[in-house]
Amino acid sequence: MMVAHHSDDLVQITEATASDVLGIQNVMQASWQSVYADLLSEEHIARTLRRSFSEAALARSVNHAGATYLVAWVDGEIRGMCHYGSPLLDDCENRKALYSVYVHPDWWQQGIGTALLDVMEAHLRPQRVTDVFTYVDARNTLASTFFTRHGFVHLPDDDRDGELYLRKVL
Fold first, then answer.
1. How many Å separate Cα 1 from the centre of its chain?
2. DSSP code of 23?
């Protein structure tokens, strides 16, 4: 199990286990509801939360061998999460997909997202991973700004269906 501390030692990052699913679900749901409240209908948000962020779906995902979930702990509670792994339709071993980074809205701007990315990168570099990519909803300026600030570059030729393609060379 990987464990890392953020520079202020208030944030502890560990690899997620099945017992972390409810904490991960709480962070993802709160973040999604906050970010997308003005961008998507309540019905669309509720459907996505039921389908993609259900306890069963997250339990399967956390236990999937091809991916890693990191959780950020503050004061004994999960306040953030990061999910990354092998791209679904890509056979390049030196490239990984960053599926999601979520921080509970009450903890935004506290360095938790940065700490999660730092630990992910530290985990991937010894594996000779050369780059990480992610897709971000084009309307989600909070996320695209966050990733750009952390060295991801928007490559418009690879955008898809309203999502920006962002890549970082490690």
1. 18
2. H
Give, as one character, the DSSP assignment of residue 50: H
20: closest CA among 65, 76, 67? 76
User: Got the DSSP string for 126-154?
Assistant: GGT--EEEEEEETT-HHHHHHHHHTT-EE
Strand pairing partners for 49?
A: none
Reading the block at residue 3, the tokens are 């464990």
Q: What is the pLDDT of residues 66-118, one digit of tens each?
A: 889 999 999 999 999 999 998 866 666 789 999 999 999 999 999 999 999 99
Residue-range domains of the chain with CATH? 3-130 (3.40.630.30)
Q: Compute how many other C-beta atoms are within 10 angstroms of the C-beta atom of residue 84.
A: 24
Place of tokens 């749901």: 29
What does DSSP assign to residue 127?
G
H or E segment to which residue 165 belongs: strand 163-169
Output the six-digit token pair for 110: 């506290």
